[in-house]
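Chapter summary example.
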Amino acid sequence: MTDPAIPTEADIQLIQRIIPHRYPFLLVDKVRDIVPMKSAVGIKNVTFNEPQFQGHFPGMPVFPGVQIVEAMAQTAAVMVGVSMDLADKNMLVYFMGIDSCKFRRKVGPGDVMEMTVTTKRGGGKVWKFAASATVEGELAAEAEFTAMMEFPKG
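The structure predicted for these 154 residues follows.
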């Protein structure tokens, strides 16, 4: 049973209160289906106006794979932040490892990417997640990653 005081989704305003990322590196527009400490689904609306498409690749815009992994990680950080009531706490998140990463299809302008993240281990500073990104139900990428969450001193 979930705690009714914990939101089950995060809009862009709440996302920005939890993670420090901003344009052009804020890669999740909304997080829904949050099951505290366990799982969530992030939404990224991919648009042609994003700066990476100027060079990746001219005439054939492809959303970079490393940014897909980053979007999955941002989804995980928002899920943790919502679960632990970390809005406005200046949480910083750092990758510690990325494992079993595979890319299955291109993602480009007009696509709506859904990132599903599941906690494999967590509760302290170091967390491990399994994640996948899909477009229209088709697997685009999958990975496991470890991240450290900390708060700046001061």
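To summarize the output: The chain has two helices and six strands.
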